[in-house]
Amino acid sequence: MAEVVAIVNQKGGVGKTTIAINLAASLAYLGKKTLLIDTDPSGDATMGLGFDKYNVGVSLYDALVGNVDISETIRETGVRKLDFVPASPLLAGADVQLATLYEKNRY
Fold first, then answer.
1. How many helices and strands (H and E) does the chain possess?
2. What is the per-residue pLDDT across 62-97, written as a single tens digit (0 to 9) for each?
3. pTM summary value
4. How far is CA 29 from CA 47, 50, 79, 83, 88, in A?
5. DSSP 72-94
6. Rounded (5°) CA angle 103-43-82
7. Strand 75-76 and strand 34-37: pairing?
8. Where are the beta strands (DSSP E) in 1-107?
9. In the chain, what's the furthest Cα-to-Cα distance?
10. C or N terminus of the chain, fewer CB within 10 Å?
């Protein structure tokens, strides 16, 4: 059975990314298959896992706007059993694009 853990806070600088990376790595170390999804346009978790947020190819943004299936965005990390979905700066505008797509398909 899959479990989901979300780490959220509207305030920046409180350690969300650090907690998320360390928790994901710890779960993977304990043998649990783990998927970390970076939903922040700043891409700090993506960079924290050793990837360039400006050069990730397809990212969460592409999956959200329907360009690719989410499975196409999953990347392996150097940690056994830890995969992740990278963020990109394009996520900053995804809400506007999603609202436009919603309105277009609504009528």
1. 4, 3
2. 999 899 999 999 999 999 999 999 999 998 888 888
3. 0.87
4. 20, 18, 8, 12, 26
5. GG-EE-SSTTEEEE---GGGGGH
6. 105
7. unpaired
8. 34-37, 75-76, 82-85
9. 49
10. N
